[in-house]
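Sanity check

After download, print the first record. It should look like this:
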Amino acid sequence: MTTPQSPLNTPEGQAQLLQDLLSAERAGAKVAGESLQQPCTPEQRQLLEQVRQGEIESCKLLLNCLQHLGLEPNKDTGAFYGKAMAIESLDERLPFVDKGQQWVIRKLREYLPGCQDPVLRSELERMLQIHEENSAASHG
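Expected structure tokens:
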């Protein structure tokens, strides 16, 4: 057996990562959904809709991972929600939302090299792709 490349690649670290990501994705979906209720430009609307769909899909991918491992998913919404919604201006909130996308990308890139489970690898590689696309769109 190879040495785990990251503390995230232990059973405990993996379970915590999946739960933390699930809470974060719930927060991101909620932020994007509520931000869509505010006046926004067509470009902002398109980005927020893309991010919202990506966060919802990522929640489903994470639920698949947790179910695969026999773990009960948490019901939490991450602290990101409160921090993001405290930023009143969409022009200022959207870069903060991208920081959330970047955090997920970093965590997945840290975890995936040591991931030995093909189901988790497949689901989380898709999640990484979603976040990379959404982050790129926010800079486009």
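If your output differs, re-run the checksum step. Summary of this record's structure: The chain is about 75% helix and 0% strand.
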